[in-house]
Amino acid sequence: MNCPRLRDWLEERYDIEGIKGIALSKFVPEHRHDIWYYTGGVTLFLFILQFLTGMLLAFYYVPHVDFAYKSIIEIVTKLRMGWFFKSLHHWGAQMAILFLFVHLFGTLLMKSYRKPRELVWVTGFVLLGISIFFGLSGYLLLWDERAFAAVRVATGGAGAFPVVGGFIKAFLRGSIDVTGETLLRFYAFHVAILPLVTLALIGLHLLLVQFHGMSVPPSLEKEKLREVPFFPNVFYKDLMIWLVVLGVVVTLAVLFPPEIGVKADPLAPPPENIKPEWYFLFLLQTLKLFPGSILGMNGETIAILTVSGAILFFFLIPFLDRRSARGERSPLFTWIGVFYLIYFLVMTAVGFLS
Amino acid sequence: MKLKFSLVTRRTFLNTLFFGWLAAFFSGTVYALMRFAFPTLGKEPDFVVLNWKDFAHIPPNSVKPFPWGGTVGLCYRKDDGSMIALKGVCSHMECNVAYKPAERRFYCACHQGWFDADGRNISGPPPKPLETFVITQEGEKLIIARKGVKVELPKA
């Protein structure tokens, strides 16, 4: 900082050297799996990008059932750079979800969730759930055919949940069907409620990570690892990777602006070969495995319960994996993690190809 | 005045009072917030009244949609000229169904569910048939009602 008077001004009031000392005392272990450390940072960067592009889009988007679709068309056709920022917001979201999953499975297979970092896992998992809801609410805002059908299916699926399903469904839709009320509600979630919750949770997640320091995979825990300072070594690497990711997102945004479908019409059937966003495909394929009714019970309810059970188990892994909590090897949970990963990949691929 | 015996200490008493007050305050607040956040729901209609003219000339083996509350109903003219009406919403995940004239079946594109010409679920995930309605013609009016519902038209 080449501004001595400002520096003095700040130093008289705050313990700048102390804060510097804290920043410089952060060290990160170096080892052959340390590439996974950067996935969280990339996700954070993409979230920042989403916040910025989202704020810009909010200047022009009109959250009303009669004007929403038209305002999107105007953003991409009439506004200067509108097509670019809309496309950037789209691809930023895709990449954010992708890196969330990469970060999640990295954490799972490195067993970074193990004691004492359970709450880091919990906050991260909730953030993933929120991000998926971000995605769903974001794409309803387009108010095109696909979004309309997807939100009907998703909220209807929540309605198949026993006891509380009807309540959740009505709360999400704001009406008995997906209507303008739903659009407004999802808009409120997308631009007000979820961003605030996300900020708070990201803050907590990062604070916890700073508190615990970086986790080292169990297989390397016994080895003597070299540690490098976060500032500037790791920080610069972070920035380099962010720059590459920005390059990729911008390239995708420029070359492949997302298609906007036909305006949603509650009276029209959805287009043939309609597919949800790729991160819902594994759920869709799982739902297809269940017949309409099983032993006289509603197959849909059983499907929803099974999926919820599997997700709940996934969420509770840090608390169930007693062996790695004690610092022992835990091959069972490695296999469970690999199973989840393969299931996710295979089902997503099947969904893509079918 | 000092009591000789007391079941609670002064601190317990005050704490109970304080947290009781806090609980009452927040439960009231949360209740009010939830009441506001939870929508007043509409209701699916028991019947709709349409213009007979609009539906009298549907060609055979085709459908014409009509609004059924917030969703869609389909008037379907079969090959033999008879007409039925059904709710055009899949019983699986509530996507709208499309009529396939070549197969003479209804198809849901969301999860590949099929229904036959009478709305019975024949393949794919749908657990139930499509809901069918009762059609009555009264002069110029076409009344489409849910089964077992008594239609009472408002007097003009």
Anisotropy-based shape of chain A: globular
Major sheet summary line of chain B: 6 strands, antiparallel
Order of helices and strands of chain A: HHEHHHHHHHEHHEEHHH
Determine the N-to-C terminus distance of chain B: 78 Å
Largest interface: A-B, 34 and 32 residues
**CATH-defined superfamily of the domain at 33-276 in chain A:** Cytochrome Bc1 Complex, Chain C
How many discrete structural domains of chain B?
2
Structural class of chain A: mainly alpha
SS field, number of helical segments of chain B: 2
Q: Taking strands numbered 1, 2, ... along the chain, how are they ordered across the largest sheet of chain A?
A: 1-2
CATH domain topology of the domain at 33-276 in chain A: Cytochrome Bc1 Complex, Chain C
| Uncertain residue segments of chain A | none
The CATH architecture of the domain at 33-276 in chain A: Up-down Bundle
Mean pLDDT of chain B: 88
What's the overall average pLDDT of chain A, rounded? 91
Cα-to-Cα separation, first versus last residue of chain A: 58 Å
Beta-strand portion of chain B reads 25-35%
Which spans of chain B of ≥5 residues are poorly predicted at pLDDT below 50?
none
